[in-house]
UniProtKB/TrEMBL annotation:
It comes from Thermoleophilum album. It comes from the Bacteria. InterPro entries: Isoprenoid_synthase_dom_sf, Polyprenyl_synt, Polyprenyl_synt_CS. Keywords: Magnesium, Metal-binding, Transferase. GO terms for biological process: isoprenoid biosynthetic process. This is Octaprenyl-diphosphate synthase. Belongs to the FPP/GGPP synthase family. Its cofactor is Mg(2+). Pfam families: polyprenyl_synt (PF00348).
Length: 347
């Protein structure tokens, strides 16, 4: 399953007016950027942005910003009066707010990688719809991914915050490194668990980490960047592990992708790695492209269950980063709710 609109709405409510208004401003800014492009990129840009993404990474960034603001306000007020406050009551200006631009940058970078991944994988579907590659062709999809990548950094550079730019640049480099590692592993069904997890850290966890760290930086608490960054990184690992389980056990109408898509693309993920360790003769089914047999083996061998268990351990590690924060109330609850939604998507 994927996060439902109701679940996202509950998280937004916990985040408060600032997060709610921020997400609206993010949508406005993304729409304006797409509308401002010339054809032939305007239409696929607009189609990609309306394809059903839940904006999880911008949501993480905006909640991290408000968490940092609330912690700063608590510290400032405590020093001044000996009292504490429970949170921030600010709301975003429109699209020029630094946090909104940063959230837009994170979403654009994420979307650029999806568009490019679909080109490399020749994927027919993305979020249940024809991918840009399928609908518009390789040349247009490649150009659109490049454009989104450039626009992401254009948004962030406009803030004049070199630390945030460095954080997103680090994530972008990791994404490329992870993709190259995955390309090198194509068709190698005996990839080690350690190498698989290294790929996950690079391809997925790095951008979750950047979203949370940039949020803390923009929220005025740079010393919180490492802690919230670790929260995001662990959450990203869990997200990818559960995504890889759903690749074998999820329905296309729910996941928006073809069943066993990674298997068909020659990519070994943890459920398959574990199933191979426990199922004699599974190599032959893989080589024959027998998706049904492989999917059954992933479940029967306990590989899906064990991958979920590891994902939940990473979620627990993420939640541990929130312990001891001198802030209670809805903002930390929002971060915890995001973690719960990530776990539930693999249930």
């Amino acid at each position: 399953m994927t996060a439902t609109a109701d679940q996202i709405g509950q998280i937004v409510d916990l985040g408060g007016p600032a997060v709610r208004d921020g997400l609206v401003a993010v949508e406005h800014r993304l729409a304006a950027l797409a509308a401002g492009e010339a054809e032939p990129l305007r239409s696929p840009f607009q189609a990609t942005l309306t394809a059903g993404g839940k904006r999880l990474r911008p949501l993480l960034l905006l909640v991290a910003v408000e968490t940092a603001k609330a912690l700063r306000a608590t510290s400032d007020l405590y020093e001044a009066t000996g009292r504490t406050v429970s949170g921030s009551r600010s709301s975003w200006p429109e699209v020029d707010d630094p946090a909104v631009r940063a959230a837009v940058a994170v979403e654009l970078l994420h979307t650029a990688t999806l568009v490019h991944d679909d080109v490399l994988d020749r994927a027919p579907l993305r979020r249940g719809r024809p991918s840009v590659f399928s609908a518009y062709g390789r040349t247009t999809a490649t150009a659109l991914g490049d454009l989104m990548f450039a626009r992401a950094f254009q948004e962030l550079v406009a803030l004049g915050d070199p630390v945030s730019v460095r954080q997103l640049t680090t994530a972008a480099y990791a994404l490329v490194e992870g993709e190259l590692m995955q390309r090198a592993d194509l068709g190698n069904w005996r990839v080690s668990r350690a190498r698989y997890l290294a790929r996950c850290r690079l391809k997925t966890a790095s951008l979750f980490e950047a979203a949370c760290a940039i949020g803390a930086q923009i929220g005025g608490q740079p010393e919180l960047s490492h802690r919230l960054g670790r929260f995001g990184a662990s959450l990203g690992l869990a997200f990818q592990l559960l995504d890889d389980v759903l690749d074998f056990v999820g329905e296309t109408r729910e996941t928006g992708k073809r069943r066993a898509g990674d298997l068909l693309d020659g990519i070994a993920t943890l459920p398959l790695i574990i199933a191979l360790e426990r199922t004699p003769g599974l190599d032959q089914a893989i080589e024959e492209g027998d998706v049904d047999t492989v999917c059954r083996a992933v479940v029967a061998s306990g590989a899906a269950t064990d991958t979920r268990t590891l994902a939940r351990a990473y979620v627990s590690a993420a939640l541990a980063e929130l312990d001891g924060l001198s802030l209670g109330g809805d903002l930390v609850r929002a971060l915890r709710e995001i973690a719960r939604v990530v776990v539930e998507r693999g249930a």
